[in-house]
Amino acid sequence: MEIDAAATLSNDQLRLERARQVLRTEAKALLAVSEKIGGSFLKAADALLACPGNVIVTGMGKSGHVAQKIAATLCSTGTVAFFLHPAEAIHGDLGRVTQNDTVLALSDSGETDEVKQILTPLRESGAVLIGITGRSGSTLARMSDITLCYGPVSEACSLGLAPTTSSTVMMAVGDALSIVLMSDRAFGDEDFGRFHPGGSLGRQLRSVGEMMRDGEQLRVAPADRTIREVFVETCRPGRRTGAVMLTDPGGKLVGLCTDSDLVRQIEQRNSLDRPISEIMTKQPTMLRREQRVRDAIAILKDRHFSEIPVVDDEGRPIGMIDITDVMDLLPTPMAA
Protein backbone atom coordinates (compact mmCIF):
# COMPACT_ATOMS: atom_id res chain seq x y z
CA MET A 1 0.00 0.00 0.00
CA GLU A 2 1.42 3.35 -1.06
CA ILE A 3 1.45 6.06 1.59
CA ASP A 4 0.49 9.59 0.53
CA ALA A 5 3.55 11.77 1.26
CA ALA A 6 1.36 14.77 2.10
CA ALA A 7 -0.45 12.77 4.75
CA THR A 8 2.79 12.21 6.62
CA LEU A 9 3.51 15.94 6.92
CA SER A 10 2.31 17.99 9.83
CA ASN A 11 -0.01 20.93 9.23
CA ASP A 12 2.81 23.42 9.85
CA GLN A 13 5.08 21.58 7.44
CA LEU A 14 2.38 21.69 4.79
CA ARG A 15 1.90 25.42 5.28
CA LEU A 16 5.63 26.04 5.01
CA GLU A 17 5.85 23.93 1.87
CA ARG A 18 3.01 25.95 0.31
CA ALA A 19 4.87 29.14 1.14
CA ARG A 20 8.11 27.82 -0.34
CA GLN A 21 6.26 26.74 -3.48
CA VAL A 22 4.91 30.27 -3.93
CA LEU A 23 8.42 31.69 -3.72
CA ARG A 24 9.81 29.06 -6.06
CA THR A 25 7.05 29.68 -8.60
CA GLU A 26 7.60 33.43 -8.61
CA ALA A 27 11.39 33.11 -8.63
CA LYS A 28 11.21 30.77 -11.62
CA ALA A 29 9.04 33.24 -13.50
CA LEU A 30 11.37 36.14 -12.75
CA LEU A 31 14.36 34.18 -14.00
CA ALA A 32 12.53 33.30 -17.20
CA VAL A 33 11.52 36.92 -17.83
CA SER A 34 15.08 38.11 -17.21
CA GLU A 35 16.14 36.02 -20.20
CA LYS A 36 13.39 37.46 -22.41
CA ILE A 37 14.05 41.18 -22.14
CA GLY A 38 15.80 42.66 -25.15
CA GLY A 39 15.25 45.29 -27.79
CA SER A 40 11.75 46.32 -26.72
CA PHE A 41 13.00 46.88 -23.18
CA LEU A 42 15.74 49.19 -24.46
CA LYS A 43 13.21 51.07 -26.60
CA ALA A 44 10.99 51.54 -23.56
CA ALA A 45 13.91 52.75 -21.44
CA ASP A 46 14.98 55.16 -24.20
CA ALA A 47 11.45 56.52 -24.52
CA LEU A 48 11.25 57.12 -20.77
CA LEU A 49 14.69 58.73 -20.73
CA ALA A 50 13.82 61.05 -23.60
CA CYS A 51 10.38 61.95 -22.21
CA PRO A 52 10.16 65.77 -22.06
CA GLY A 53 7.12 65.66 -19.80
CA ASN A 54 6.04 63.29 -17.06
CA VAL A 55 5.83 59.51 -16.88
CA ILE A 56 2.24 58.44 -16.21
CA VAL A 57 1.75 54.91 -14.82
CA THR A 58 -1.68 53.31 -14.91
CA GLY A 59 -3.32 50.00 -14.12
CA MET A 60 -6.44 48.56 -12.49
CA GLY A 61 -6.83 46.30 -9.47
CA LYS A 62 -3.60 44.57 -8.43
CA SER A 63 -1.92 45.99 -11.52
CA GLY A 64 -2.97 49.41 -10.26
CA HIS A 65 -1.24 48.83 -6.94
CA VAL A 66 1.87 47.71 -8.81
CA ALA A 67 1.62 50.82 -11.00
CA GLN A 68 1.59 53.03 -7.91
CA LYS A 69 4.71 51.31 -6.63
CA ILE A 70 6.48 51.69 -9.98
CA ALA A 71 5.61 55.39 -10.08
CA ALA A 72 7.01 55.82 -6.57
CA THR A 73 10.23 53.98 -7.45
CA LEU A 74 10.69 56.05 -10.60
CA CYS A 75 10.25 59.27 -8.62
CA SER A 76 12.74 58.27 -5.94
CA THR A 77 15.38 57.35 -8.51
CA GLY A 78 15.29 60.43 -10.70
CA THR A 79 12.33 60.05 -13.08
CA VAL A 80 9.27 62.22 -12.43
CA ALA A 81 6.23 59.93 -12.49
CA PHE A 82 2.58 59.94 -11.42
CA PHE A 83 -0.09 57.28 -11.02
CA LEU A 84 -3.28 57.67 -13.04
CA HIS A 85 -6.31 55.61 -11.98
CA PRO A 86 -8.06 54.33 -15.13
CA ALA A 87 -11.55 54.71 -13.65
CA GLU A 88 -10.83 58.32 -12.70
CA ALA A 89 -9.16 58.91 -16.05
CA ILE A 90 -12.37 58.26 -18.00
CA HIS A 91 -14.13 60.81 -15.80
CA GLY A 92 -11.85 63.73 -16.46
CA ASP A 93 -8.36 62.85 -15.22
CA LEU A 94 -7.23 62.14 -18.78
CA GLY A 95 -6.74 65.89 -18.85
CA ARG A 96 -3.53 65.31 -16.91
CA VAL A 97 -1.91 63.62 -19.91
CA THR A 98 -0.18 65.73 -22.57
CA GLN A 99 1.69 65.00 -25.78
CA ASN A 100 4.96 65.44 -23.89
CA ASP A 101 4.22 62.55 -21.52
CA THR A 102 4.98 58.85 -21.69
CA VAL A 103 2.42 56.40 -20.34
CA LEU A 104 3.19 53.00 -18.80
CA ALA A 105 0.00 50.92 -18.90
CA LEU A 106 -0.13 47.65 -16.94
CA SER A 107 -2.50 44.73 -17.51
CA ASP A 108 -1.60 41.06 -17.34
CA SER A 109 -4.39 40.06 -19.72
CA GLY A 110 -4.12 43.22 -21.76
CA GLU A 111 -7.93 43.25 -21.83
CA THR A 112 -8.83 45.03 -18.59
CA ASP A 113 -11.96 47.06 -19.43
CA GLU A 114 -10.99 50.22 -17.57
CA VAL A 115 -7.54 50.23 -19.19
CA LYS A 116 -8.94 49.51 -22.66
CA GLN A 117 -11.29 52.49 -22.37
CA ILE A 118 -8.42 54.94 -22.00
CA LEU A 119 -6.13 53.55 -24.73
CA THR A 120 -7.68 55.46 -27.64
CA PRO A 121 -7.77 58.79 -25.76
CA LEU A 122 -4.16 58.25 -24.67
CA ARG A 123 -3.06 57.69 -28.26
CA GLU A 124 -5.03 60.73 -29.38
CA SER A 125 -3.23 62.83 -26.75
CA GLY A 126 0.06 62.27 -28.54
CA ALA A 127 1.70 60.65 -25.50
CA VAL A 128 4.00 57.68 -26.04
CA LEU A 129 2.24 54.51 -24.85
CA ILE A 130 4.24 51.63 -23.37
CA GLY A 131 2.28 48.49 -22.49
CA ILE A 132 3.40 45.94 -19.91
CA THR A 133 1.40 42.75 -20.34
CA GLY A 134 1.55 38.98 -20.39
CA ARG A 135 -0.23 38.58 -23.74
CA SER A 136 1.37 39.71 -26.97
CA GLY A 137 -1.90 39.54 -28.95
CA SER A 138 -3.95 41.57 -26.48
CA THR A 139 -5.62 44.92 -27.10
CA LEU A 140 -3.05 46.67 -24.89
CA ALA A 141 -0.17 45.10 -26.82
CA ARG A 142 -1.67 46.02 -30.21
CA MET A 143 -2.37 49.64 -29.27
CA SER A 144 0.92 50.36 -27.56
CA ASP A 145 3.82 52.11 -29.27
CA ILE A 146 6.15 49.81 -27.36
CA THR A 147 5.14 46.53 -25.74
CA LEU A 148 6.96 44.76 -22.93
CA CYS A 149 5.43 41.29 -23.02
CA TYR A 150 6.66 38.94 -20.32
CA GLY A 151 4.56 36.06 -21.63
CA PRO A 152 2.19 33.70 -19.80
CA VAL A 153 3.07 32.92 -16.18
CA SER A 154 1.67 30.46 -13.65
CA GLU A 155 0.02 32.22 -10.75
CA ALA A 156 1.26 31.00 -7.37
CA CYS A 157 -2.30 30.94 -6.03
CA SER A 158 -3.52 27.38 -5.43
CA LEU A 159 -6.55 28.19 -7.60
CA GLY A 160 -4.39 29.77 -10.28
CA LEU A 161 -6.58 32.87 -10.12
CA ALA A 162 -5.25 35.49 -7.70
CA PRO A 163 -2.67 37.82 -9.28
CA THR A 164 0.56 36.73 -7.62
CA THR A 165 3.29 35.74 -10.06
CA SER A 166 1.99 38.16 -12.70
CA SER A 167 1.99 41.13 -10.32
CA THR A 168 5.46 40.18 -9.06
CA VAL A 169 6.77 40.07 -12.63
CA MET A 170 5.20 43.41 -13.51
CA MET A 171 6.74 45.01 -10.44
CA ALA A 172 10.14 43.54 -11.26
CA VAL A 173 9.97 44.86 -14.83
CA GLY A 174 9.12 48.27 -13.42
CA ASP A 175 12.08 48.03 -11.05
CA ALA A 176 14.34 47.06 -13.94
CA LEU A 177 13.26 50.11 -15.93
CA SER A 178 13.70 52.38 -12.90
CA ILE A 179 17.22 51.20 -12.12
CA VAL A 180 18.37 51.31 -15.75
CA LEU A 181 17.08 54.89 -15.96
CA MET A 182 18.76 55.68 -12.66
CA SER A 183 22.07 54.55 -14.14
CA ASP A 184 21.45 56.36 -17.43
CA ARG A 185 20.86 59.60 -15.55
CA ALA A 186 24.02 59.09 -13.44
CA PHE A 187 21.73 59.46 -10.42
CA GLY A 188 24.11 59.36 -7.45
CA ASP A 189 24.35 59.67 -3.67
CA GLU A 190 23.77 63.42 -3.67
CA ASP A 191 20.57 63.05 -5.68
CA PHE A 192 19.35 60.11 -3.62
CA GLY A 193 19.96 62.01 -0.38
CA ARG A 194 18.06 65.03 -1.70
CA PHE A 195 15.01 62.90 -2.46
CA HIS A 196 15.15 60.90 0.79
CA PRO A 197 15.62 63.42 3.63
CA GLY A 198 13.41 61.53 6.06
CA GLY A 199 13.76 58.33 8.05
CA SER A 200 16.87 56.32 8.76
CA LEU A 201 17.88 56.26 5.09
CA GLY A 202 17.73 60.03 4.88
CA ARG A 203 19.75 60.43 8.07
CA GLN A 204 22.47 58.11 6.80
CA LEU A 205 22.79 60.20 3.65
CA ARG A 206 23.08 63.47 5.54
CA SER A 207 26.49 65.06 5.96
CA VAL A 208 28.50 64.54 9.13
CA GLY A 209 28.41 68.31 9.62
CA GLU A 210 24.62 68.21 9.96
CA MET A 211 24.59 65.57 12.70
CA MET A 212 27.81 66.13 14.63
CA ARG A 213 27.89 67.63 18.10
CA ASP A 214 29.62 70.99 18.18
CA GLY A 215 30.03 74.20 20.17
CA GLU A 216 29.65 73.89 23.93
CA GLN A 217 28.99 70.17 23.69
CA LEU A 218 32.62 69.57 22.71
CA ARG A 219 35.46 69.00 25.14
CA VAL A 220 38.81 70.20 23.82
CA ALA A 221 42.07 70.57 25.77
CA PRO A 222 45.84 70.93 25.15
CA ALA A 223 47.66 67.59 24.97
CA ASP A 224 50.42 68.85 27.30
CA ARG A 225 48.15 68.98 30.37
CA THR A 226 47.86 66.31 33.06
CA ILE A 227 45.00 63.83 33.16
CA ARG A 228 43.54 65.57 36.20
CA GLU A 229 43.76 69.04 34.69
CA VAL A 230 42.09 67.98 31.46
CA PHE A 231 39.12 66.25 33.04
CA VAL A 232 38.61 68.97 35.65
CA GLU A 233 38.75 71.73 33.04
CA THR A 234 36.46 69.96 30.58
CA CYS A 235 33.89 68.79 33.13
CA ARG A 236 30.52 70.35 32.42
CA PRO A 237 26.87 69.54 33.11
CA GLY A 238 24.31 68.61 30.49
CA ARG A 239 24.76 66.99 27.13
CA ARG A 240 28.39 66.51 26.21
CA THR A 241 30.62 64.17 24.25
CA GLY A 242 32.10 61.08 25.87
CA ALA A 243 35.66 61.97 24.90
CA VAL A 244 38.10 64.86 25.12
CA MET A 245 39.83 65.97 21.93
CA LEU A 246 43.46 66.86 22.58
CA THR A 247 45.35 69.40 20.52
CA ASP A 248 48.93 70.54 19.87
CA PRO A 249 50.05 74.19 20.35
CA GLY A 250 48.78 74.98 16.86
CA GLY A 251 45.28 73.72 17.67
CA LYS A 252 45.48 70.58 15.55
CA LEU A 253 43.98 67.34 16.83
CA VAL A 254 46.68 64.93 18.01
CA GLY A 255 44.83 62.64 20.39
CA LEU A 256 41.61 61.45 21.97
CA CYS A 257 40.92 60.45 25.55
CA THR A 258 37.57 58.93 26.49
CA ASP A 259 35.74 58.82 29.79
CA SER A 260 36.39 55.08 29.73
CA ASP A 261 40.13 55.77 29.58
CA LEU A 262 39.82 57.90 32.71
CA VAL A 263 37.80 55.22 34.52
CA ARG A 264 40.48 52.62 33.78
CA GLN A 265 43.16 54.89 35.26
CA ILE A 266 41.11 55.30 38.44
CA GLU A 267 40.34 51.57 38.70
CA GLN A 268 44.03 50.74 38.31
CA ARG A 269 44.90 53.43 40.91
CA ASN A 270 47.26 55.12 38.47
CA SER A 271 48.36 58.68 39.06
CA LEU A 272 46.12 61.29 37.45
CA ASP A 273 48.94 63.83 37.55
CA ARG A 274 50.73 62.27 34.60
CA PRO A 275 50.61 63.92 31.14
CA ILE A 276 47.42 62.91 29.39
CA SER A 277 49.51 62.32 26.27
CA GLU A 278 50.69 59.09 27.92
CA ILE A 279 47.24 57.51 27.81
CA MET A 280 45.54 59.24 24.90
CA THR A 281 44.87 57.54 21.59
CA LYS A 282 47.38 59.20 19.30
CA GLN A 283 46.39 60.23 15.75
CA PRO A 284 42.80 59.03 16.13
CA THR A 285 40.51 58.25 13.20
CA MET A 286 38.92 61.49 12.02
CA LEU A 287 36.04 62.59 9.81
CA ARG A 288 35.46 65.66 7.66
CA ARG A 289 32.17 67.52 7.91
CA GLU A 290 31.30 66.86 4.24
CA GLN A 291 31.44 63.07 4.64
CA ARG A 292 28.23 61.06 4.93
CA VAL A 293 26.80 59.86 8.21
CA ARG A 294 26.83 56.36 6.77
CA ASP A 295 30.65 56.65 6.57
CA ALA A 296 30.71 57.37 10.30
CA ILE A 297 28.38 54.46 11.01
CA ALA A 298 30.64 52.08 9.08
CA ILE A 299 33.63 53.18 11.19
CA LEU A 300 31.71 52.89 14.46
CA LYS A 301 30.58 49.39 13.48
CA ASP A 302 33.81 48.03 12.03
CA ARG A 303 36.19 49.46 14.63
CA HIS A 304 33.87 49.35 17.65
CA PHE A 305 34.35 53.05 18.39
CA SER A 306 32.01 55.16 20.51
CA GLU A 307 33.16 58.58 19.27
CA ILE A 308 34.78 59.93 16.12
CA PRO A 309 36.20 63.47 16.06
CA VAL A 310 35.46 65.77 13.13
CA VAL A 311 38.16 68.15 11.92
CA ASP A 312 38.45 71.00 9.43
CA ASP A 313 40.86 71.23 6.51
CA GLU A 314 43.63 72.29 8.89
CA GLY A 315 43.08 69.33 11.20
CA ARG A 316 41.47 71.40 13.96
CA PRO A 317 38.58 69.79 15.87
CA ILE A 318 35.17 71.21 15.00
CA GLY A 319 32.78 68.45 16.04
CA MET A 320 32.18 64.94 17.27
CA ILE A 321 30.01 62.05 16.10
CA ASP A 322 28.84 60.22 19.21
CA ILE A 323 27.49 56.68 18.98
CA THR A 324 24.47 57.57 21.12
CA ASP A 325 23.28 59.99 18.41
CA VAL A 326 23.19 57.31 15.71
CA MET A 327 22.31 54.26 17.81
CA ASP A 328 19.08 53.64 15.87
CA LEU A 329 21.02 53.56 12.60
CA LEU A 330 23.48 50.89 13.70
CA PRO A 331 23.06 47.18 12.87
CA THR A 332 20.86 45.51 15.50
CA PRO A 333 23.53 43.32 17.17
CA MET A 334 25.80 46.34 17.72
CA ALA A 335 22.99 48.63 18.86
CA ALA A 336 21.94 45.96 21.35
UniProtKB/TrEMBL annotation:
Keywords: CBS domain, Isomerase, Metal-binding, Repeat, Zinc. GO terms for biological process: carbohydrate derivative metabolic process; carbohydrate metabolic process. InterPro entries: CBS_dom, CBS_dom_sf, GutQ/KpsF_isomerases, KdsD/KpsF-type, SIS_dom, SIS_dom_sf, SIS_Kpsf. One of its GO terms (molecular function) is carbohydrate derivative binding. The record marks K62, E114, E155, H196 as: Catalytically relevant. The keyword Metal-binding applies. It is an enzyme of class 5 (isomerase). Gene3D superfamilies: CBS-domain (3.10.580.10), Glucose-6-phosphate isomerase like protein, domain 1 (3.40.50.10490). Zn(2+) binds at H85. It comes from the Bacteria. Residues 211-272, 280-336 form the CBS domain. Its EC number is 5.3.1.13. Residues 44-187 form the SIS domain. Belongs to the SIS family. GutQ/KpsF subfamily. This is Arabinose 5-phosphate isomerase KdsD. It comes from Kolteria novifilia. The lineage of its organism: Bacteria, Pseudomonadati, Planctomycetota, Planctomycetia, Kolteriales. The gene is kdsD.
